[in-house]
Amino acid sequence: MNIKKLGRLALPYLVWMLVLVGIPLVMILVLSFMKTDGVSFTGATWSLEAWQEMFSVTDPTNLKILLDTFTFAIIATVICFAIGYPMAYIVARSPFSNKFVILVLTIIPMWSNSLLRNVALKNILSETNILDSLLSRVGMDFVIRFANQDQATFISIIVGLVLTYLPFMILPIYTVIEKIDESLLEASMDLGANPARTFLKVTFPLSMKGVTTGIIMVFLPCFSGFAIQKLLSRGTVYVLGSLIEANYIHDINFVSMLSIVILFLIFGSMMIVNKVDKEGATLV
Amino acid sequence: MAKKLIELKNVTKSYDGAAVVNDINLYINENEFITLLGPSGCGKTTTLRMIGGFEKPDAGEIVLNGVVVNDVPPYERPINTVFQRYALFPHLNVYDNIAFGLRNQKVAKEEIAERVETALKLVSLPNFAKRKVTNLSGGQQQRVAIARAIVNKPKILLLDEPLAALDLKLRQSMQYELKEMQRKLGITFIYVTHDQEEALTMSDTIVVMKDGVIQQIGTPTGIYNEPNNRFVARFIGESNILDGIYVRQNLVRFMDVEFDCVDTQFADGEPVDVVIRPEDLDIIDPKGAKLIGVVSSSIFRGVHFELCVMVQGKEFVIHTYENRKVGENVGLRVDSYEIHLMKVEQGEH
């Protein structure tokens, strides 16, 4: 069978993509430039109101939210990378025969519901927490004290995001490092590169694919999600996701605009990461 | 006099209690092409890896230029390796692969460019600098791997079955090229292979190994003509091996017939192993021949015919240019200097 004939098998998929992804996306884009009464085109007019509300300079509330969303997502991603890479590297290069078991141990918490985990985390990070009430019975106390409420909120959210998404960083990086041929490292040493240089010039460039995947897998949900931020800030912090959650019933145009913004920002970040990766593959 | 460059003294290496390399002693001269030859699992690769610094010997010493280097890591040894599966860096192009070692030594940019170019010319791959290594054929990757190693001008080049993955024609031409390169560069080559023909073609010295023990060290002709024991005789080329008795000086008896011989280092009446190479047996008229037999099979091998002749229930392999019919009665003749006698070893047969 030739490729052309096989290609026809993709037809149902293409139709599916068009109907369930393509058309809705176009709809959202169109809706963001209109003023409508719910999801209905009766009495609809073209309007930039939604976009003006978002990027208004006179009232930068929404811009501030956009900035916060970015900040949380980027800091969480960087920390996930800083913890995840060494962890993946150490496990992949460890002499244990069953490395995957060690890895699974780090992933098991992922199997429980992330909301529940973050509720528990909220409890632990607050002044009256379950650990403290247990430990106080043996005369110890466990309270994490923050300088002020803003700091508490910020740190809690970052911790929550990192704990939730860390496995998504570790797994892809582990997979690529594990697959790097031992003989390449030997070749590098043979050619006079000490272990540190071997890591910089061989291991790290060869693991870039996993790093890229990890960054995307962590950054995307951190940027578009809102539940963790909402929960751990007790509803005081707004991110783009929370704006959508708060408005999707009564202002479909505003929410459409937000979706488009998120979509473009994510698209943009992915392009940057991809570009960095490609250069990493050829330069070094 | 050739200068000793590297020496292995009583080197032993075990994995899980089993000795892979067992107490070997070996020295390698400057500018020598030496081949470690043996079947898989004989410890030849492990020996090479110990010289390269990738494995540490459990006991014994590796001496390089008079200095014990047991604990010197690979990146500090003046040794480079051509790996079996080349181990080219897939994220770098041909140029960067070859320049890798020079950059580690902080060689100036212009000099790197010059040396890489020279190396590429030497392996006949000019204009390949910008190519991706993943798009090269096996033979081309092989050449890049060699260029990547020799560009550093190492004292010693280790080659771990570098031609194993290539097809016959390419392998043969690479054998010549490698030998040529070694002559031109004046680098000591330590070559590992299980292919006896390769070893005979290229080496100045061959080290035959089996079960982690050196069986014989010698020149290709020396090893071929005077194998130390049955293993070497069988491993290097084909041979007819017979039980014999050393009757007295210059006289040996096998197949119930006495033959003149030239070996002298045995006691009268001592049992010996007799080796006769297939090409050293001549087919003659049965009348007056010492050995008479019947041709049991004949195979055309291109240059020669390979005949099997049954003599008193023992099969002889003979290489000859004239064919004989199966079932024909023939006589066999062998010159005295072509009969090689070996000490009988315990546990051999």
Q: How would you portray this structure in words?
A:
The complex is a heterodimer of chains A (284) and B (349). With 284 residues, chain A is an all-alpha fold. Chain A has a domain at 60-250: MetI-like (MetI-like fold), CATH 1.10.3720.10. Chain A is built from 14 helices and 2 strands, in the order H-H-E-E-H-H-H-H-H-H-H-H-H-H-H-H. Chain A has a two-stranded antiparallel sheet. Chain A is globular. Residues 279-284 of chain A have low confidence and may be disordered. Chain B is an alpha+beta fold. The two termini of chain B are 40 Å apart. The model of chain B has no long low-confidence stretch (mean pLDDT 90). The longest helix of chain B has 18 residues, at 168-185. In chain B, 24% of the residues lie in helices and 36% in strands. Chain B has 2 domains: 4-230, 3-Layer(aba) Sandwich (Rossmann fold), CATH 3.40.50; 238-343, Nucleic acid-binding proteins (OB fold (Dihydrolipoamide Acetyltransferase, E2P)). In chain B, strands 6-7-8-3-9-10 form a 6-stranded mixed sheet, with helices on both faces. Chain B has a 5-stranded antiparallel sheet with strand order 13-12-11-14-20. A 5-stranded antiparallel sheet of chain B has the order 15-19-16-17-18, with no helix packed on it. The interface between A and B is medium-sized, with 22 and 28 residues.
